[in-house]
Amino acid sequence: MSGNNKLSTALPNPDRERLKTHFSIPVEQHGDAWSSLWSTGTFLPWDRGLSNPALVDLLDSPTAPFKLRPGQTVLVPGCGRGYDVHLFATYGLEAEGLEIAPDAVRMAREWIETELKKRELPEGGKAVMKEGDFYKRDWEREGGYDYVFDYTFLCAMPPTLRPSWAVRMSEIVKPGGHLICLEFPLFKDPATGGPPFGLNEGVYVELLGEKFERVVRFKPERTHKIGEGSDHVSVWKRKGKESVL
């Protein structure tokens, strides 16, 4: 299968097995397991060093199913080094990144600070990092977010947590707001385990169909090499009455 060949090229079997072994522990301990990887800092195979070009192209597209406005809010859970947090901020959004690993938060803040020295953000743009557990509520912004971006976040958690992921998304995305999903890895057989755990279109539909309306789904022209030919972008609008404020 071409997808399996792609995975072998981009993420060698030893790396996949190392991740799988590292997370062969109770799910309650996964937060600490992610923290230990970031603390060591020598094995971060998911870190590509930049935002996925599929997201860049979507935000630049005149036909995107949403209109970015300065001062709107966006959350990037599991944001790693904060590439996407900074990217959203360059469009004038108040961007927040969430990480459970303290060292990931520290590294992201350092990286963002370096970028801000090169170029100031436009009016309304902010890039803020938060440390917290996505499934708890002590970190979240009052009133929710206009946008949430998920890439390599849903696939990082065991399938048993997927229903809880969907509930949290429905809680933090404002009515009328948008959840942007870069669906990955669609080429991976779910039976092979993870992380990353294999996904497919049906998983997203099942998880989000009740509280969200899918407004678009397409295969991006550009994406990271590991997802070429299989990655899809889907945008979901939160159902419910929008605020007039």
UniProtKB/TrEMBL annotation:
GO terms for biological process: methylation. One of its GO terms (molecular function) is S-adenosylmethionine-dependent methyltransferase activity. InterPro entries: SAM-dependent_MTases_sf, TPMT. Keywords: Methyltransferase, Phosphoprotein, S-adenosyl-L-methionine, Transferase. It holds the Pfam family TPMT. The keyword Glycoprotein does not apply. This is S-adenosyl-L-methionine-dependent methyltransferase. It comes from Ascodesmis nigricans.
